User: Fold these one by one.
Assistant:
Number 1:
Amino acid sequence: MPLVRAVLDTSVYVSALISANGPAGKVFEAGFRLKVFRPVTSPAMLDELIDVIARPEKMRLIDRTLTELATFHLFVKQNAELLPGDYQDLELAPTDVKDNPVAGGGSRRAGAVPRRPG
């Protein structure tokens, strides 16, 4: 039976870095190490991840070097299923404005959802 595919929110990765033994750390472990499910990500989500974990306030909480954070980012990129596409493959949707900087490639106009074929 194929594994369930799951998209982990950036907050799960950040929380897993802060506390590997906490709930998010256990979710990370289940997907990436125990292979209970197949983690899925995208170029936009990977960009958001590096942006968030490199913020000074997050770095203080995570307590890792930039090199360790870059290694973590690379691990996620290489071990999650990477969906094809880039920012131009997104359609702006004004329903989730908190995600605008990520989904709109830095734009604060609107959120984004994948374009539907046709």
Number 2:
Amino acid sequence: MVCHYTRLLDRRAVIKAVMNNNVHIQFYGEIRAAANKPAEEVAPHSTVFDLFCKLADGYGPVFRGEIFKEDGSSLRDDLTVTINGATVRHEATHKLVAAPGDVIAIFPVFPGGG
């Protein structure tokens, strides 16, 4: 039941972001814990990498450490980034410009499997 409720909240947030012509960024795992919230709504028209930099400036060093390599020039190798459900290569985040209504998710690789 809680899972369905959480999904409903996420859908409402995405709809709100689209209606406000913003970008909806979803956080998962340790990134969510570092941000202390599940998502953020931001203005578009920056590269995806620049959006992450702005978020890191606001959320502080723990958040920054969760998403960037030590030199800060690229994302950590153990992260997955999706835009509108499609996986994006880390190098592409420097070139891709976030558009109004985009849903960006960033999450660590989860161990396990079968």
Number 3:
Amino acid sequence: MIVHLSLWKGRVRIKRSMRDIAFLVAETHGLSVSQLKERTHRHAVAHPRQQAMWIMMQQPGASPSAIARFFGMDHTSVLYGVRAYQKRLDAPLFANPAGEAA
């Protein structure tokens, strides 16, 4: 883990490696890193993988191409995964399916 400290404006930036992020996300979801890297579309694996991609993209200097190489996929798959995870983050927790006012 690389720690960058800046006393200017009181910012502290911590940069984690892709391997560290993958390990933390996999461990949180009860998976191994090798399972996270599998080429599967199962929600139990795909959603945590998308979460890891999203966190990796938040790191300074991250690129979809580098993340794609880490997971063994195309950079457009990373872009899709990051957008899909962001869409889930932005979705209301208790959506009203009937569209009625609460």
